Amino acid sequence: MLYREAGQFKTSYQADAAIFPLRQDRIGIGVIVFIAIVVIPLFGSNFLLSSVMIPILVSALSAIALNILTGYTGLISLGTAGFMGVGAYACYKLTSIFPGINIIVHIVLSGFFAAAVGVLFGLPSLRIKGFYLAVATLAAQFFLSWCFIRIPWLYNYNASGAIQVPTRTFFDVPITGPNASAMARYFVVLGFVIVMTWLASNIVHGRIGRMWMAVRDMDIAAELIGIKLYQTKLLAFAVSSFYCGVAGALMVFLWLGASEADSFNINQSFLILFMVIIGGLGSLVGSFFGAAFIWGLPILLRVLPEYVGLTINSATVEHLQFMVVGALIIFFLIVEPHGLARLWQIAKQKLRVWPFPY
Amino acid sequence: MDLLYNIFIDPFVQMVQLPDLFVQTLWEGLVSGVLYALIALGFVLIFKASGVFNFAQGIMVVFAALTLIGLYTLLRGWGVRPGDLAAFLALGLTIGVMFVLAFGVERLMLRPLVNQPDIILFMATFGLTYFLIGLGELVFGGEPKVMIAEDLYLPKGSLDFKILGGLVSLQKIDIAAAVIASVMVATLAVFFQKTRIGRALRAVADSHKAALSVGISLEQIWVIVWFAAGIVALATGIMWGARSNVSFALQIIALKALPVLILGGFTSIPGAIVGGVIIGVGEKIGEFYWGPLLGSGIESWLAYFIALIFLLFRPQGLFGDKIIERI
To answer: Residues near A320 by Cβ (< 8 Å), separated by ≥ 6?
Structure first.
């Protein structure tokens, strides 16, 4: 009853091809954006903004990046963190060479650097498939990590080997560096995430997205119906790496404030892969679910024992956390291998027929 | 010009001028290659029989080694003296633990996930990795431990050879590792080729459905391969542990086994060995002779690049089954 499409007629091709064909969806997305833009900054504490929302949004963006490559095009990549690092270091170099240009421009430009590197490491994807490709992308991960440590030019010959984010302003409001308020950083990240999610949604629902999905489902068949495999796969690598690069730049400049090569190690890549799998392969909304789940779970596990009244020492908690996260991942994959996005679909279907069982 | 000289001529001149150093590097590469191959062997066993890309092999190595040390300390605490073969008792018990682990994995993880896409199973082994890291640290503590190499009668010390006008020194433990690895591979090869269970394993590897239809129990086979991988992990853990300490950092070496795997092919046991040796030797020689040119530490990615170059010519690895794609 609540979620019914009855009576909503589509009178043009445009309406038929719309991403949110139902009124309820449009209202829902409007409410979510309203909450994100107005309600959370109004009522959220600094902790919520800088330690929960910004990490979730940045992770969601990188999950979208990996989802484009793995979920939509079917190319498994374990080099996500490496490409994020390229974005972060490119942004750092750009803003130290051209401090006069706005940081927002630099963040977008650094995405293009990451895209170029991504295409380079995507070249083997035409010949190598499946897990072989996954391991091949590890080459990118380890090579790039090595570069971040061994090429001092990248971090301006700092003695510490880490990059410190300088203060940069946007319309005279500091948005990066130590003086930036959590609110300002949150708005910049949110802006990026909204615009880039909108763009990604348009790409994957259009011709390019269909090409990607055809390649994912069976690449030989896709080739036979006239899709150029090489260009399609490289385009997926380019777009995905662009998103990675922007997410990496946002991560260092607006979230962490400082970073070293270790922020972009292999574990980060795996974490993002988790988000994509738990959220749902080939689903943009799933990327957000996955990011929220992976960030929410440790917080929940830390809070829950205290709430029940158990006192366990912190080292044990950490070990238990590992065990519980591991067990939950397996549990989740068994219960719903298609991820949280699929649960969301089931919930929508239930709402559609509610209060009747079917 | 100078750079070209440094890349293409100087390393080879060095190799010829100091042949003993070259042999030493070659040997070290060979040994680390054998150890990579042992980890890769665990991967191959499981991939062959169940199509699961088992990321947890690395942590299984650490877990097995820690269990062995933990049980040994426990037995010693109960008053079993080293002369009473406490170490071998612990070894037997550890094998038992690995069997329980294999059984649990099959029952709780693989069986409910049967017929899922490969990537889902891959992620599930990731969950297993996290679980085992947490469990291991909870039970055994996070600090590095010393492997009980002497109580297991593993040799120590080194053999020195005077050849090629210099001194080449071989650690005895490395020789033992190479011997054990060869024995293990030979045993596995015989097991796969000659026994009834081995034939069933190969049948399952070929096609799950066909194997099921002729009455092979998939559940049993999976327990057996995970158990076999557990024993391989235990052997690897003892060998790695005897060379350096046993710590959770060791699971990182599992990532080094991945280029070995793709180089040799996911489905080939000899491929794991040959791949391991190529990667090990290539890595050590590359680091030693070409590393200084690029700044050191190229070991971390060189292996992947070597594997990548081979893959461009043979996308299924050196010994992998030919990939035939149909519409």
So the answer is: A301, A312, B134, B138
Contacts of B248 in chain A (CB under 8 A): none
Beta bridge partners of B163: B166
Give pTM, 2 decimals: 0.86
Total beta-carbon pairs less than 8 A apart between chain A and chain B: 136
Residue A132 has pLDDT above 70, yes or no: yes
Is the Cβ pair B266, A143 closer than 8 Å?
A: no
Q: How far apart are CA B179 and CA B28, in angstroms?
A: 15
Q: Which domain holds residue B222?
A: 26-306
Whether the ipTM is more than 0.90: the answer is no
- Number of domains comprising chain B: 1
Query: Which residues, listed in sequence order, are joined to residue A258 by a DSSP beta bridge?
Result: A164
State the nearest Cα–Cα gap between A109 and chain B, in angstroms. 27
Nearest to B312 among A127, A129, A326 (CB): A127
- DSSP 8-state assignment for residue A44: -
Cβ(A149)–Cβ(A161) below 8 Å: yes
Terminal-residue alpha carbon distance, chain A: 12
Instruction: Out of B127, B316, B325, name the one closest to residue A220 (CB).
Output: B325
B307 contact residues in A (CB cutoff 8 A): 135-136, 139
Residue B312 lies in a domain: no
Q: How far is CA A99 from the centre of its chain?
A: 27
Contact A322 B133 (CB under 8 A): yes
- Give the list of residues 6+ apart from residue A58 with CB closer than 8 angstroms, or none: A189, A193, A247, A250, A251, A254, A255
Q: pLDDT tens, B75-125?
A: 877 776 666 677 788 888 889 988 999 898 888 888 888 777 777 888 888
Q: Note the pLDDT tens digit of each residue in A225-249.
A: 999 988 899 999 999 999 999 999 9
Residue tagged 């917080």 (tokens): A299
Q: How far is CA A203 from the centre of its chain?
A: 16
Distance CA B77, CA B263 (A): 45
Angstrom distances, CA of residue B37 to CA of B254, B257, B261, B285: 10, 7, 8, 18
Q: Average of pLDDT values for A125-146? A: 83
Domain boundaries, chain A: 1-32, 44-353
Chain A residues within an 8 Å CB radius of B116: 333, 337
Q: Is residue B286 part of a domain?
A: yes
Q: Which fold has domain A44-353?
A: ABC transporter involved in vitamin B12 uptake, BtuC (1.10.3470)
CATH code of B78's domain: 1.10.3470
- Chain A residues whose CB is inside 8 A of the B300 CB are 142, 145-146
CB contact under 8 Å between A266 and B316, yes or no, is: no
Q: Do B327 and A270 touch (CB under 8 A)?
A: no
Residue B288, judged by CB atoms within 10 A of its CB (0-12, 13-18, 19+), counts as buried
In a domain, B56, yes or no: yes
> Taking Cα atoms as reference points, which of B100, B59, B7, B60 lies closest to residue B229?
B60
Nearest CA in chain A to B113: A334
What pLDDT sits at residue A246? 93
Chain A residues within an 8 Å CB radius of B317: 132
The minimal CB distance from B300 to the residues A146, A273, A326 is found for: A146
Which of B39, B131, B140, B293 would you mutate first to test chain A, the one with the most A CBs within 10 A? B131
- As given in the structure block, the two tokens for residue B135 are 């469990």
Does B284 map to a domain? Answer: yes
Instruction: Tell me the CA distances in angstroms from B152 to B68, B70, B82, B173, B224, one per residue in order.
Output: 11, 14, 10, 12, 25
Q: A274 vs B126: CB contact, 8 Å cut-off?
A: yes
